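User: Run a structure prediction on this.
Assistant: Running it now.
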Amino acid sequence: MGKKLIITEKPSVARDFARVLNVKGNRDGYIENNEYVISWCVGHLVGMLYPEDYDIKYKSWKLKDLPFLPKEYKYGVLKPVAKQYNIVNGLLHREDIDTVYWAGDSGKEGQTIEENIRNFGGVREGMTELRVWIDSQTDEEILKGIREAKAMSEYDRLGKSGIMRTIEDYALGINFSRALSVKYGRLVNDAAGTKKYSAIAVGRVMTCVLGMVVYREREIRNFTETPFYRVIGNLTEEKIAAEWKAVEGSGYFNSPLLYKENGFKTREDALKLIDELTGKECLVESIEKSTSKKKPPLLFNITELSAECAKRYKITPSQSLQIAQDLYEKKLTTYPRTDARVLTTAVAKEIYKNLNGLKEYAPTAGFTGKIIDEKLYEGLQKTQYVKDADVTDHYAIIPTGQVRGLDGMPDMHRKVYDLIVRRFLSIFYPPAEYLSVKLTAVIEKEKLFASTKVLKKKGYMEIAGISKQKDDEETELTEEGKKKVLAFVDKLKKGDAIPVDSFEIKEGKTSAPKRYTEGTMMLAMENAGNLIEDEELRQQIKKTGIGTSATRGGIIKKLVDIGYLSENKKTLILTPSKLGEMIFEVVDMSVPTLLNPEMTASWEKGLEGIINGTVDAGEYRKKLEDYIRNETLKIAGGNIQQELVFRFRDFARKEEEPKNINGVKCPMCGGSILKTGDGIYKCVNYVKDKEGACKFNVYPVLKHKITEKELKELAENGTTGVIKGFVSKSGKKFNAKIKLNRDDLGYITGIGFDFG
């Protein structure tokens, strides 16, 4: 009987297999004893060749050579890992080895690495090929994976899908990057003022993500802040706040005077309502009390974990993935590159093993002990946290129960581990319980509403902590304020008269959409269905997302690295760079479907279909190449140079160096004023997203760029002289002064026109 060969994806994993199987004979690139030979890859050993490797003529980028769609794609050994490839390939052809266990990462990417090796170098004829598929690196799981390994042929469709994904990314990137670079690369580089020529980089997922960030940024730029005025009735001397709303039956129901149902567009109309209500009897119309429950959230997949880590610890998705990978390789947690947020029935049946091990983890030992002692884990299979149909490759990220080695890990690794443990333990605890109270009061036809919601039982929040995010029904009240409302409502019954101490106006302002952070972008990539109208595609992309769990963080990082996106290191907020917006314009005018999540959804659906057996790989490739061929020829035959020049005007101007405006002090905080652009000024203490920081800044107003003289008048006198030549949105010219707007307390809220 021949020896058994095991091939892992990394040397560290190979050493774990060797230790578990007691294989100690170290060789050059593998470990061997009289039963097993264990070797490893170093990530990808084989990759697709560049066009110039097919024919030297392709080294020069020329439109006449596009589209580049060979009948058979060529592969080659990657030079940095050629030695290890030769070792692995030699072992795959050794006469004394009759079985190979492919033990790469159990996922799409791991399967693709193995398929490329098999397809390029082959395997000795007659050798049995088995696939090890495991969810963690514990000794027990490794032995189980070897014992229950399935025939490699059972993973054929997964392999074909992975290869097709590689071909798709390669063909799209090569053809569109070359075509757009030849046509418009020089124009973009000149307009962007790059120091060194940079080709236009296009990717199936990367370009779609760039589009999402640019679209969001333009929503923010085009957003116009709109004030609105809410009417609040203060009930009794305790001033219990009750908000007026124009519900059905109100004299203002569906009125054009309103901004939504609870605010007026002008202060004057809000004051008019107060006049109508003042002095009139206020009666209790209804009191509603209810108890609601909030279940523990689903378990972490890599996207949810990355988003939570970005929010809590300000680390990037790439860093989160690396930490999760490290925890996995140290046997502390299960496989990280998973899309699932639930467990399988088989895992749930033995979950007590994970719990028993966690008794040794001191920070949550008390919670773990309670779960075990009270057998709270029984019946887990019947909960929402177990669903076999939602697990494709791997179940959610959970602790294995092994804690040895955690103390030696960096602080951030321990924080992420603790996050995973607490999310896991939460699912065994009961829901949190809230008491909600809603009071409806009526003054003639108008209604006032007071409500609050208090936490009565912490439930799982004892472990996970109480979320700081507001619930839909949550109010701005303090805990003391909530108790006051509850006590007040307890004394009332329907029909009671309530004295109204006073009415007041609360001014609000509409808010622009928030910029993506790296964390929220990960969620947007996974849940981009809200950008898609087609129901089937929307459901599909909710399942597969844009990109894969293994690649999303890397895609964002690449966009930052190549200068298309800018990242705030502290907040992780993403914004498009000048170069990125120019690339967006080029793609938007030439291959706009690349910016469309709907197109990405259809591709993801096709790739998943290959895995499921509902899509033929050959047909998929034909449709892909037809699309690339048609779009590439359109690029080659089109000419959008002049339109791009027009669109680039706003990006091409180099930003001015900030310049201190001598003798002018900020009217808000007294700081110096900087000129940061043509007609653009801001206080030296201005920080946009920081609470409590100065917010004084001035931009061009209706095509008029504020001069330094006008800024000085505005800062010192609160108003300028009459300025001529403003242009309204309808195109009409008019003259006016610019003044500082102030609220009732005298605080500056912005600038506006003075026609007096």
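The chain has five domains: 3-57+73-148, 164-221+517-651, 227-294+435-509, 302-426, 659-754.
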